[in-house]
Amino acid sequence: MAKKIKLVIRSSDEYRLIAVVSHLKDYKLAFEINQNLGLDLVRYDDLAYAVSGDIMCTYAWYRFEDSSSHAVFYLIGSKHQGGNLIPSAKSADFFMLIKNHPDPQEIKQFLAKLRTIPNVITAVEVKPDTVKDIDMLLDINELHEMEQLNHR
Fold first, then answer.
1. Per-residue pLDDT for 8 more than 50?
2. Per-residue pLDDT tens for 41-91?
3. CA angle 58, 120, 47 (to 5 degrees)
4. CA quadruple 62, 67, 69, 72: dihedral, nearest 10
5. Which of 52, 53, 74, 123 fits as disulfide partner to 97, beta carbons 3.0 to 4.6 Å?
6. Looking at the predicted structure, is the pLDDT value of residue 7 above 70?
């Protein structure tokens, strides 16, 4: 009997993407976000990705899961001397990827608080469907998350 293969298509609607421009180091930004926004971002192994050809680049990767709302927050570095994580968003230094957070009003409040952090130049929500490489980012983030959580 032939097996049926089920294709699961992930909707980018379950994700919120925030581009952050800041001169802070990743660990300092994560600390400031934790202090000012009440998160507990934890650093894991860097996310490794071959941006162009054979050049392997690594990007800082932090994660926090809110047990009450089941929202998951990721802080991902975007800059590496070998290339940007998302070439179509060159100006972003970091991405805050938020999974399973349906309340747009809370996202607006989150953005407002994020912008008040010293040395955060700007933080803007980006519609995931407007970013050319969003599927790539979501895929490598999911794979990296599975790897990291299985090793702990």
1. no
2. 999 999 988 876 677 889 999 999 998 888 999 999 999 887 888 887 888
3. 15
4. 20
5. 74
6. no
Closest alpha carbon to 62 in 85, 84, 35, 40: 40
Q: Which residues contact 12 (CB under 8 A, 6 or more apart)?
A: 128, 129, 134, 135, 138
Residue ranges in the chain assigned as alpha helix (H):
26-37, 104-115, 134-151
Q: In sequence order, which residues have a C-beta less than 8 Å from that of residue 56 and are 6 or more positions away?
A: 48, 49, 50, 82
CA–CA distance, 100 with 76 (Å, rounded to integer):
17
Beta bridge partners of 43: 62
- pTM for the model: 0.87
Q: Say if residues 100 and 72 touch (Cβ distance below 8 Å).
A: yes
CA 19 to CA 92: how far, in whole Å?
Answer: 5
- Residue 144's pLDDT band, with cuts at 50, 70 and 90, is very high
CB atoms within 10 A of CB 24: 19
Provide the sign of the torsion angle of the four alpha carbons 109, 149, 95, 11, taken in this order: negative
Cα–Cα distance measured from residue 86 to residue 50, given in angstroms and rounded to the nearest whole number: 12
To 10 degrees, what angle do helices 104-115 and 26-37 make?
120
